[in-house]
TrEMBL record:
InterPro entries membership: Cleav_polyA_spec_factor_su5, NUDIX_hydrolase-like_dom_sf
Gene Ontology molecular function: any one: mRNA binding
Lineage: Eukaryota, Viridiplantae, Streptophyta, Embryophyta, Tracheophyta
GO biological process, alphabetically ordered: mRNA 3'-end processing
Protein name as catalogued: Pre-mRNA cleavage factor Im 25 kDa subunit
Length: 217
C-alpha cells in the first residue's frame, strides 16, 4: 500500500486510485441508546448456536446478503480502519443485512445511520458510498467465508460485500452504547485472522491497489 502526503487528483501519476483520509482528531465521538441487534450475539453461546440461528434465518428468508463499510482515518501518520467491537471479543465492520429488495448502497447507508449516526440525523448525515472492493461467500453455515464462490455444488448461504466509504474532513460519530468504535492500524490487521476474522484481515490486500493520501486540514 502506497502512502502519500500531498493533495492528489482522482488518479495518481501511476494511475492508481487515490483515497483521501483525514486525521482521527478531526472526528467527534458520542453515544446513543444500546442497539437491540447485539442481543443475537449474546444468545449465541457456541458456534453451533450461531450456525443454528443462521440456518433458521436462511430457511425463513433465503441467502443472507450483507453490506459492510471500509472507513479509513489517519493516526500517527498511518491509515487506520474503523471497526465496531461487540462483547469485547467480536470485531465487525459497520454494516449489516439487506432488506428484501433493498439496493446495496441504500442498505449500507441505512446501516451506517443506525450504527454511526444520531437517530434523528437522517436528513443531515450524508454517506458517500464508493466502489465494491471485495465479495465474500459462505457455502455453509459453519464454514469460513471465501473471496470467491466455492464450487461445492451447494447453494451459497451468505454473501458479504465490502464497500469503500469516503469520510468527509470532519464528522460526528454517534455509536450505540453496547458497541465500541475502534481505530485499528492497517498493519495490525494483516496476518491477524484469529483476532479479526478472514474478511477484516484481508482488507489490507484489497486496498493494495489504492494510494492513501493523508490530508491535513
Amino acid at each position: 500500500m502506497e502512502i502519500i502526503n500531498k493533495r492528489c487528483s482522482n488518479k495518481g501519476d501511476d494511475d492508481h486510485l487515490v483515497v483521501d483520509i483525514y486525521p482521527l482528531s478531526n472526528y467527534y465521538f458520542t453515544s446513543k441508546p444500546a442497539s437491540s441487534h447485539v442481543a443475537a450475539f449474546k444468545d449465541d453461546q457456541t458456534l453451533a448456536d450461531h450456525a443454528l440461528r443462521l440456518k433458521s434465518n436462511y430457511d425463513a428468508r433465503g441467502m443472507r446478503t450483507c453490506v459492510e463499510a471500509v472507513l479509513l482515518v489517519e493516526l500517527f501518520k498511518h491509515p487506520h480502519l474503523l471497526l465496531l467491537q461487540v462483547n469485547n471479543n467480536i470485531y465487525k465492520l459497520p454494516g449489516g443485512r439487506l432488506r428484501p429488495g433493498e439496493s446495496d448502497v441504500d442498505g449500507l447507508k441505512r446501516k451506517l445511520l443506525s450504527k454511526l449516526s444520531a437517530d434523528d440525523d437522517n436528513h443531515r448525515t450524508k454517506w458517500e458510498v464508493g466502489e465494491c472492493i471485495g465479495t465474500w461467500w459462505k457455502s455453509d453455515f459453519e464454514t469460513l467465508p471465501y473471496p470467491y464462490l466455492p464450487s461445492s455444488g451447494k447453494a451459497p448461504k451468505e454473501c458479504t460485500k465490502l464497500y469503500l466509504v469516503k469520510l468527509p474532513s470532519s464528522r460526528d460519530f454517534v455509536v450505540p452504547k453496547n458497541y465500541k468504535l475502534l481505530a485499528v492500524p492497517m498493519c495490525q490487521l494483516h496476518e491477524s485472522r484469529k483476532t479479526y476474522g478472514s474478511i477484516i484481515a484481508g482488507i489490507p490486500q484489497l486496498l493494495s491497489r489504492f494510494s492513501i493520501n493523508i490530508v491535513h486540514t
